[in-house]
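Protein folding task:
====================
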Amino acid sequence: MYSIHAAMMAKLPVLAFAAFTLPFLSMNSLANDGSANTGSAPSDGLRAGRPLRVLAIGNSFSKSLCPHLPAAAAAAGERLEFCNLYIGGCSLLRHADNLRKEEEDPTFAPYVVDWFAPGGGRKCPAFNGGVRQMLSTQAWDVVTIQQASPGSWRPETYFPAADQVVAAIRKLAPGAEIVVQQTWAYNAADGRIGGDSPAWGIDQSEMFSRLAAAYNELAGHFGEPRFRIIPTGQAVQNRRAALAAEGRGFNPSVLEPGHPIDLRGEPVGNNLHWEPQKDENGNATGKFSLAGDMIHFNGQGQYLQAIVWTAFLFNRDAAAIPYAPESVGSAETCAALRAAAAAALKR
């Protein structure tokens, strides 16, 4: 990763930085393609064949799109230019604070920027950038926002930060449709929502119902037309329900300490394992605690998210998107994930 700003560039020989300036070529002359400010993404006809340009102001719950979204769109025959701004755990409040800091100091560049060209390849290597910088670099068709997962189910955490973020988008990218990504409930093994005494006092189902309500409130907060919602979280719940109906759902209450952990198709969770507990002297107690990442998508979750986004952005039938990499699972598994995505988009 790298970060190069205009002030620094002026001091470097042309040949020294020419290979690193791709993201900034249009910064001083913003693209104007004649797209109307209609509040929704322009159709392919209005885009005159150019790619759909999507900027995600996100965190790790949008960075998880990078492995599959560009390729899924390409496999569907669509032209997508996707750019993700990433800071781990970045909330709407922190995005708003970063906008303020960047306005005071244009060299402030706290985000990792992953930018993909149509066809699935990277437009350039990852670099460090700012929200204002990226909103202004070209005309975007869609700009997405989302809340950080710990606050996603608490509507009081959304405002007034969301007002500030939306105001900046409307000022710097007036032709873009603002879209909300509905994020997802954690793996039921996470101690904040699972176990006999969950730290948050809610379970997985309630986490989802609360975050869905909070995102609906966000979508309607700014008047008509309401912001559209990408139902990633609903697709996850659909997949969980389908697995449970087949008797294959992931149930952490039946896990045996010390034994291998099978997620059984659960799309959320990585490297779940048992860690031996130790006493104050560092000696093994013979007991185990469950450890690992219980909030982020694994490969199947990343695939599911990419299918939801592809179908949403291009108004496609998720079940019919011809993208099923072997790395995700069998053809049947991919079809089941696409079905979960399709059902979410039909709600």
